[in-house]
Structure formats: structure tokens, C-alpha cells
Write a structure and sequence with these properties.
With 213 residues, this protein is mainly alpha-helical. Among the domains are: 38 residues, no CATH class; 59 residues. It has nine helices and no strands. One of its GO terms (cellular component) is centrosome. This is HAUS augmin-like complex subunit 2. InterPro entries: HAUS2, HAUS2_metazoa.
Length: 213
């Protein structure tokens, strides 16, 4: 039987003149071979056991891994180049750099405009009343002044409170009268609050009755 007229899938070769009645037989042979009832041919055994075939497969796998490594290396280089050129290629970074330069330019311009005052201050660092502070304590002084500034702004009020506390006496009975007045005021507030709560509950009940009716 000449099986060369059939394809590998068991179908009849349309260009062959062989009888189509052999097609089912070829299909059966293919199924039997897939199930393992037919031993591999000698050529297949040679291909599977040949060292050269295994070496070729290993070389193919190595080439594939090398291509993947090359792609990873290329991606890393692109990332590094993107990071190095971000000041030029990224719009957001350029805008930030421009703002920083503008801020620095404004600061330098203010220094130039105040050049005469700076010269005077450098030539005469101590003008008028001043507090001599050693250089090692300048940082603490800079932290202290913002904290005491609100106290100095309300210094008059604080002094009045200190004077009032100093003049206050507990022996004349004024504190007792003040505490009594405070107690009466709190009691009145409590009573008013209870009345308001009771009124709110009554209004809620009336509203509920109106809805039902």
C-alpha cells in the first residue's frame, strides 16, 4: 500500500489518483499511532536521541534567552536615558525648573534693589538697641521669637489679668457670691434646656397626630 498519496492528517491528497476508499484506513492508522500502539520509526528515535539535535534545541533556547536579555537591557537603557533627559523632554519638569528659576531671579533682583541697605547693614551691623547672642544660639532665638510674638501682641491684656489676680481676695466673700450667682445661672440654663426639650417632643407628637389624621 502506498501511503505517500495521503497527507499527515489522514486526508486524501486531492492531487493524487489513489482510491478514496483508503482514507478511512489511514485515519485508523493515525489514531493507533497517537494512542501509542505503533512504535516510533527509526528516524524519530534517531532525532530524539541524537546529541546534535539536542544541541540545536539548546542553542535555540539560548538564542531566545539572549534576545529577551537584550530587550531587557534595551528597556533599562531607555529608562536611564529618559531619566537623564527628563529636564528637556518632560513638560512638567521643565515648567517646575522655569518656576524655580523665576523665583531665584526674583530673589536676586530683590537683593540687587536692596544693595545699598545691605551695604549699610554690613558696615554697621549693630544699630540702635540690640541683644547680643552668640552664634551657636541664633537658631534657638529664631525659634523663640515666633512663639513669643502672640504673647507680646496681647501683652496689655496679660498684664491686666495678672493685676486682677493679684488684687483678688478670697477673704471678702466676693468669690462666694460669684459662685452662687454662677450656680443660679447654670440652674436656670438647665431648666430652660429641659423645657425646650419637652416642647420639642410635644411638637413632634402633634405633628405625628396630624399626619395620621
Amino acid at each position: 500500500m502506498d501511503l505517500r498519496n495521503f497527507s499527515k492528517s489522514g486526508e486524501l491528497n486531492p492531487w493524487s489518483d489513489a482510491d478514496s476508499a483508503l482514507s478511512p484506513l489511514l485515519n485508523v492508522l493515525n489514531i493507533v499511532e497517537k494512542l501509542g500502539y505503533v512504535q516510533k520509526t527509526k528516524d524519530d528515535k534517531i532525532k530524539s536521541s541524537s546529541p546534535s539535535i539536542a544541541l540545536i534545541a539548546l542553542l535555540k533556547e539560548t538564542s531566545k534567552i539572549q534576545r529577551e536579555l537584550h530587550q531587557v537591557d534595551l528597556d533599562i537603557q531607555r529608562r536611564m536615558q529618559d531619566k537623564e533627559t527628563s529636564d528637556i523632554t518632560h513638560l512638567a519638569v521643565r515648567e517646575k525648573r522655569i518656576k524655580d528659576i523665576q523665583s531665584l531671579n526674583g530673589h536676586m533682583q530683590s537683593i540687587i534693589d536692596s544693595k545699598s541697605q545691605l551695604k549699610t547693614r554690613l558696615q554697621q551691623p549693630f544699630v540702635g538697641d540690640f541683644v547680643r547672642i552668640e552664634a551657636q544660639y541664633h537658631r534657638y532665638a529664631a525659634e523663640l521669637f515666633p512663639q513669643i510674638a502672640p504673647i507680646l501682641a496681647d501683652l496689655t491684656t496679660h498684664l491686666e489679668n495678672i493685676a486682677w489676680v493679684k488684687s483678688l481676695s478670697f477673704s471678702d466673700g466676693k468669690m462666694d457670691s460669684l459662685l452662687s450667682d454662677l450656680n443660679n445661672t447654670l440652674a436656670g440654663l438647665q431648666t430652660t434646656f429641659q423645657l425646650l426639650c419637652q416642647m420639642r417632643n410635644n411638637m413632634a407628637q402633634f405633628h405625628h397626630i396630624d399626619i395620621k389624621s
